[in-house]
Design goal:
This protein has helices at about 1-10, 15-30, 35-50, 50-55, 80-85, 100-105, 120-125, 130-140, 160-165, 180-190, 200-220, 230-235, 240-250, 295-305; strands at about 65-70, 90-95, 150, 170-175, 230. The chain is α/β, with parallel strands linked by helices. A five-stranded parallel β-sheet has the order 2-3-1-4-5.
């Protein structure tokens, strides 16, 4: 069904495309165990307990400045930005690494089969930042390449931002920002392997996105200046100034190769593998409007959560 939807979309048969995507999502939803109440409890715990006071009570971890975390929601331009950064001669693309979360789970002796939960973040608060940072650097050694810096592009690392700030205080964090409807719809029409279980229902997708945006607002307020927001739309519309600003934030010297990211020949294993083989474009901006009527449940859920849909 997802393949049929993609074919109809390529043929600009919008109604048929959405029907296929919708049927595919409904079928996939019956196969996943998504517990929205448990997710709400996890976000509430992060809000209540991951405070600046808690962070300040901990000692700093591993001072290695080589990690660059690119994170946010999936399908929001994380691969585009990762390719811009890793086109730099001093940066290696390590892909979507699971190592930070695995280090948290290992050191916290976390046995729950759910990848993310309130329990995980209760245990994480008790960890030694030095041990956490050291284990991350140790377990990523073979994936980091031979350059001074490397990119870890796992979107879900946004949950761990306070822990990253302590465990790896000299790491750089880049957060992608994208229009909420484009972000939600792009995930809704994507069949993921074993992640983003909220993405197969319009209402669940929108409510998750609202929780994510609120959490990022919290991190931004509590840890000002500790990570860089970059707009997908701004970068797609006007690549060079945004790329230059990004490279400057990373404290790297400018290289023109960062504008020619699409000429890289390295492998891409994400859903954006095709898009990053061509120059930056704006075709995906506002794509959800082709399905505006069918996406009303998603739009209404975002509006109900206080997120403006324009």
């Amino acid at each position: 069904l997802y393949a049929i939807g993609k074919e109809h979309e390529d043929l600009q048969q919008w109604d048929q495309a959405f029907e296929a995507f919708s049927q595919g999502a409904a079928a996939r939803r019956t196969t996943v165990d998504y517990d929205e109440d448990a997710e709400i409890a996890m976000f509430d715990y992060l809000d209540k307990h991951y405070t600046p006071q808690w962070l300040d009570s901990l000692s700093d971890g591993n001072p290695d400045p080589s990690p660059i975390f690119v994170l946010g929601q999936p399908r929001t331009g994380t691969t585009l930005v990762e390719r811009i950064i890793s086109s730099h001669s001093q940066v290696h693309s390590s892909g979507e690494l699971q190592q930070f979360g695995l280090a948290v789970r290992r050191l916290g002796n976390y046995r729950n089969p759910k990848r993310f939960s309130e329990e995980l973040f209760v245990l994480a608060q008790q960890l030694d930042p030095q041990k956490l940072g050291n284990l991350y650097m140790q377990t990523t050694r073979k994936m980091r390449g031979d350059t001074p810096r490397f990119v870890d592009k796992l979107p879900q690392n946004y949950f761990f931002i306070p822990l990253i700030l302590k465990a790896l205080p000299n790491a750089k964090i880049v957060h992608l920002v994208r229009d909420p409807m484009d972000a939600c719809f792009s995930s809704f029409k994507q069949l993921f392997a074993d992640a983003y279980l909220h993405s197969y229902d319009q209402g669940e997708m929108a409510r998750h996105h609202a929780r994510y945006r609120r959490l990022m607002d919290i991190w931004r307020e509590r840890f000002p200046g500790r990570f860089c927001d970059i707009s997908y739309e701004d970068t797609a519309r006007d690549l060079e100034p945004n790329a230059r600003s990004l490279i400057d934030y990373l404290e790297l010297p400018w290289e023109d190769a960062c504008l020619d990211f699409h000429q890289q020949d390295g492998a891409v294993s994400t859903a954006s593998a095709v898009q990053v083989r061509e120059p930056a474009h704006t075709r995906s901006i506002g794509r959800w409007r082709r399905y505006e009527q069918q996406l009303q449940p998603m739009a209404q859920a975002l509006e109900s959560a206080g997120i403006s849909v324009k």
